[in-house]
Amino acid sequence: MEAVTASAPVTQGVEPVLSARGLVREYGAVVAVDGIDLDLAPGDFLTIFGPNGAGKTSLLSLLGGRLKPTRGEVVIGGQRLDFGETSWRSRIGVLSHQGFLYAHLTVEENLRFFGRLFDLPDLDRRIPERLEQVGLADRASFLSRQLSHGMRQRLALARALLHDPEVVLLDEPYTGLDPYAASVLRNVLSSLHDGRRTVVMVTHNLTQGLELSNRVAIQVRGAFAWEGPRERIDAADFERFYHHVVEDGRE
To answer: pLDDT digit string (tens) for 83-113?
Structure first.
């Protein structure tokens, strides 16, 4: 499998939902993201693997508008991310390490607070639907601090999906989860394969990350050392292939 430096084009005739062109993020002399191009269509699920320090979280922050690129641009649904206005933010849902949950609020109150920030209609419908989707319908009245780590992850995902975003960005969603909690979360993430949303996930979990995706990227030193369709990868030999790509990318 050959190394590539840019994303393969989306299906002919389908406009990409998420695009990046020449994306660079520098921190002084350190180049965290180094010239990444990307095109993802509706329904694409891209999983990004890579060693620590490869710039994966910085890339997600650029795609979600939390960081300004040093150079390059991000386009969502044909709209360039412009930090001078905010309408594009409603098109993105983010699950990050922080979770953005308030410990003193109940599960329902956390979602209601977030929904009001986005001025969402029909919260009395949306909130129960999202809690049912992530398996927390019976925890609506619990304080978020009473939840296990895995439940908080699912609540944070419900928050990220509450406003029906076109693009969902997931940063290491499996971190710190026990096998049962990871299995529950995997089922929730599988439900995102609905043909409407475009998902980008960063994870170190090679097995679970690979089975969810239809596109895969391996990021090394800020750039994609390999990127392409999932079917081009031999799942049984992916660990060996992954380590080979990482070592080549470090040379």
So the answer is: 777 778 889 999 987 778 999 999 999 999 9
Is residue 222 included in any domain, yes or no?
Answer: yes
pLDDT of residue 11: 47
> Which range of residues forms the domain containing residue 49?
18-250
Order of strands, sheet of 18-27, starting from the edge strand that comes earlier in the sequence:
30-40, 18-27, 71-76, 79-80
Q: How many beta carbons lie within 10 A of that of residue 240, not counting itself? A: 10
What is the tally of structural domains in the chain?
1
Per residue in 112-161, pLDDT (tens digit) is 999 998 899 999 999 999 999 999 999 999 999 999 999 999 999 999 99
Nearest to 37 by CA among 231, 214, 182, 224: 224
How far apart are the C-alpha atoms of 159 and 60, rounded to whole Å? Answer: 18
CATH number at residue 187: 3.40.50.300
197: tokens are: 């949303």
Per DSSP, 10 falls in state P
How far is it, in rounded angstroms, from Cα 217 to Cα 7? Answer: 9
Structure tokens at 171: 């940063």
Q: How far apart are CA 90 and CA 11, in angstroms?
A: 25
pTM of the complete model = 0.90
* Number of DSSP helices (H) and strands (E) in the chain, helices first: 7, 10
